[in-house]
Amino acid sequence: MDVFFVISGFGVGVLVGLTGVGGGALMTPLLIFGFGIAPAVAVGTDLMFAAITKANGVWIHARQSSVEWRIVGWMLMGSLPATLMTLLILRQVDVRTDAAQEVMTITLGVALIASAGALLFRRRLAQSDTGLTHDETGRKTRIATVVTGVVLGTLVTMTSVGAGALGAAALFWLYPRMKAVRVVGTDLAHAVPLATVAGLGHWQLGTVDWVLLVSLLIGSLPGIYIGSRLSARVPEIWLRSVLASLLLVIGLGAVFGGRLMA
């Protein structure tokens, strides 16, 4: 067990608690670019990390009745089949080859850039007129929700990124009349089974490092608690702007060369 992984888990946990942004957008690039962990192992380990750390949040939101379970079901109709299909494709290739690692790194960069955009334009997305707002339980909205699940399932399985910032942004856009607390609860309730299935699939692929996972959890769980307690004292707009800028820089680095520093 490496103390630096424990410290890193604590730092990411604090940021997750402060911003509510999923750990995948923070932890996976840190493991790859900061510690040199192979992309496939970083993704697989972080998926199990996300499934465990987010489970408590789902339980709390469920007790507060702040989860739209029908929307969770529509998203899972798209995301779980997409996850299984992506895992099947990954099983057919050697994810440890240079070519596969490069594809996963570039895909991670694209997901991080999209997450940065979702953070920056979250309010605008929530206020936009999608053309679906007249009937949020109608056929078009249901289809759009399932398609969103397909995109998230593929992205999350490939990169471990997307179930947090992108999922919430999609829900704000599709359901602008939904209260923010219900968006967060619904997004979490969808993310946990998605991350669990994808993480177990990566375990079968041999791309989950359990010692690394335990180290990250030891640091992150108290970090999330502390960050959550501090969140009310730090301006949300400032935090999200800084975090979005960081994700954008890392994403561009991943897409254009796969390294942050030459």
How would you sum up this structure, described in words?
It is a single chain. The mean pLDDT is 82. It is built from eleven helices and no strands. The protein has one domain (3-255). The chain starts with a helix and ends in a 7-residue tail after the last helix. 78% of the residues lie in helices and 0% in strands. The chain has 262 residues and is mostly helical. The longest helix is centred in the last third of the chain and has 26 residues, at 180-205. Helix 7 (139-159) runs antiparallel to helix 8 (165-174). It has helices at residues 3-19, 24-35, 39-63, 69-92, 98-120, 122-127, 139-159, 165-174, 180-205, 210-230, 236-255.
Summary of the model, kept short:
The protein is an all-alpha fold and 262 residues long. The chain is 78% helix and 0% strand. It has one domain (3-255).
Helices and strands, with pairings:
Layout (H helix, E strand, L loop, with lengths): L2 H17 L4 H12 L3 H25 L5 H24 L5 H23 L1 H6 L11 H21 L5 H10 L5 H26 L4 H21 L5 H20 L7
Strand content: under 5%
Q: Tally of extended strands? A: 0
For the residues shown, what is the average pLDDT?
Answer: 82
Portion in helices: over 70%
Largest sheet: none
- Which term fits the overall shape? globular
Q: Cα-atom Rg, whole angstroms?
A: 17 Å
Task: Give the count of helical stretches.
Answer: 11
Count of domain modules: 1
Which stretches of 5+ consecutive residues score pLDDT under 50?
A: none
Question: Which secondary-structure class do the elements indicate?
Answer: mainly alpha
Q: How many angstroms separate the termini?
A: 29 Å
> Secondary-structure element order, as H and E?
HHHHHHHHHHH
